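Example (one chain per record):
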Amino acid sequence: MRTGARPTAHPAPVDPARWPDVAAPPASSPPRTAVAAAVVRHALRGLPLRARFADGTELGRGGPVLHIHRPDAFHARIGRSGLIGFGESYMAGEWDAPDPVAVLTVLAAHAADLVPAPLQRLRGLWAPRRPAARRNTPTGSRANISHHYDLSNDLFALFLDETLSYSSAVFRGLPATWDLLADAQRRKIDRLLDLAAVGDGSRVLEIGTGWGELAIRAAARGARVTTLTLSREQRELALERVAAAGLADRVDVELRDYREARGSYDAVVSVEMIEAVGAEFWPTYFRTLDARLAPGGRAALQAITMPHDRMLASSSTHTWIQKYIFPGGLLPSVEAIAGTVREHTGLTVARRDAYGPHYAETLRLWRERFTERADEVAALAFDDTFRRMWTFYLAYSEAGFRSGYLDVQQYLLTKEDTPR
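Predicted structure:
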């Protein structure tokens, strides 16, 4: 099918020194590019969207619009590096959409069957492999965390609410509005603290400080908190916020890996940190929770999860999110968490609650805020390619939750009163 005139993209020039893999499409053999083009067009024909190519060709069964401005570069990138190439093509301005979340939600909902089954079975041959340098060893984890969380406290403050919470909120109802976000973040934190039974006199270990809001609220309940982070920038601001709250005598903010934690605690709380652990170290992570909890203790976790079969299929491959946003990251499945807890600890999964739609709304509010404050992002010396990258990251993540491909869980893990 062919349509009429189409808009022309005019992306800002890409800095090749800062973005070498975005500045120009990678070399891809003609056969590989041709196969990619055939696979992409076959997939698009069956999807509920409208893919419009530069020559006026339109594919799809109707729905949100995807403009492919430079098909040759688009197909070459996908042929060379799959979904990494798809994301880089967006960063380069080779494709766009009036509503990227809607387009990405369609793609996420059909993620399991976008690539034909015979090619799926050959995934190991065509999918990029995860770099060994990104393993979450103690040294590797520091570098991986720094890549994202040490970007700039000022950047995160531009699109997060006053609590500086960078994880899913829990709203009273959906859809949500910006003015409700801070209270929804506090509700999320209080729910986790309630799960862990944190109160006056509790000894609390937090794995993953963020910018300190959970530690502050736990200390305000009368708890004594030790909170661990690998981000120097986060620690610096968290210390300032703890002091401003008048709780410096109740909170220790340590620049320390979770594997270096010592002591015994009544409660361990960890919010969306397991995603940065890596499958190789999930047993170590959960054994650490077990070792640090006193008999009768409780651990409250918040974790983003993905379907188990998709986790297994992608566990050894390199993704766009890992390359540009969270190096070393891997989302677990509910089954993987349950199996690791069962096989490597004496803990019991006592409760699990899912609320993925709340994360979709949280991400929407962050994305809209980030877009609204684009000039301020630019003033922090983040270029247009970075801003497109961050927009794609937030939209891609929101789409994952809107499609149901991703979910977010709150867990309660308990430990027997007496050691086994």
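Caption: The chain has a mean pLDDT of 93.
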